[in-house]
């Protein structure tokens, strides 16, 4: 249908063996939300900025995310039996950057609290927190697919989600 796809002129394509730059460019046309997936490593709170969060099943309630196999942070989280997904709002770019860059202590001033069931850090200023028990960790190429059973949830009514597209943060805007 006209208008479905920009001008309709394909800029680049590949079939079979796909070059890494093109692969990243193509996948970068798909937006994600931004979450902080948290867990406890002993006494220490740890968190990863995660865009690959996905809702998997309603009944039973299952969600998932994909940490890279090389991730140092996932290495620290992986022995935990639970994790908490904190959904960032479009006013929380600085918080996302703080956890991504880890220049100074990103937890300071976050007001995090242990989530009710798993004790993983829940950040009250986020749009939603989804507390999960790890159900399965599946091999997924250079990532793991971590599936969790949702055991507690909370959300606030105000605010709009932070969006990530093509390496940049942005806002969500509903159609009129
Ligand atoms: C918006 C955004 C989304 C991200 N999503 C993921 C993701 O889904 N999976 C992943 O492994 N890393 C993701 N990352 C990168 C991780 O946050 C982190 O930088 C990476 O795990 C390497 O850091 P580490 O080795 O210190 O853990 C994302 C980063 C940003 C800024």
What would your notes on this structure say?
Helices cover 13% and strands 39% of the residues. It is mainly beta and 176 residues long. A hairpin with a 4-residue loop joins strand 4 and strand 5. It is globular and about 50 Å long. Bound molecules: flavin mononucleotide. The site of flavin mononucleotide has 14 residues, from strand 3 and helix 2.
Distinctive features:
Pnp Oxidase, Chain A; single chain; binds flavin mononucleotide; globular; mainly beta; 176 residues
> Any idea what the radius of gyration is?
18 Å
The number of helices is 3
Write the CATH fold name: Pnp Oxidase, Chain A
Instruction: Give the fraction of residues assigned to helices.
Output: 10-25%
* SS elements, strand count: 12
Going by CATH, the architecture would be Roll
Overall pLDDT metric: 95
As a percent range, the share of strand residues is 35-45%
Along the chain, the helix and strand elements come as HEEEEEHEHEEEEEE
Shape: globular
CATH class category: Mainly Beta
Structural category is mainly beta
Provide the low-confidence segments as ranges: none
Q: Major sheet: size, sense and barrel closure? A: 7 strands, antiparallel
Bound molecules: flavin mononucleotide
End-to-end gap: 21 Å
Give the count of structural domains: 1
Strand order of the largest sheet: 3-2-6-9-10-5-4
Spell out the CATH superfamily: Electron Transport, Fmn-binding Protein, Chain A
């Amino acid at each position: 249908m006209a208008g479905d796809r920009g001008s309709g002129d394909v800029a680049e394509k590949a079939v079979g063996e796909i070059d890494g730059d093109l692969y990243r460019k193509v996948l970068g046309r798909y937006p994600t939300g931004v979450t902080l997936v948290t867990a406890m490593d002993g006494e220490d709170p740890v968190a990863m900025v995660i865009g690959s969060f996905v809702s998997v099943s309603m009944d039973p309630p299952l969600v998932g995310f994909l940490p890279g196999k090389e991730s140092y942070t996932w290495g620290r989280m992986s022995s935990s039996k639970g994790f908490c997904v904190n959904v960032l709002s479009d006013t929380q770019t600085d918080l996302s950057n703080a956890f991504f860059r880890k220049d100074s202590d990103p937890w300071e001033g976050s007001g995090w609290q242990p989530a009710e069931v798993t004790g993983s850090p829940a950040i009250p200023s986020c749009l939603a927190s989804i507390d999960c028990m790890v159900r399965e960790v599946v091999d997924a190429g250079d990532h793991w697919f971590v599936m969790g059973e949702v055991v507690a949830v909370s959300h606030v009514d105000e605010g709009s989600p932070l969006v990530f597209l093509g390496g940049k943060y942005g806002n969500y805007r509903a159609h009129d």
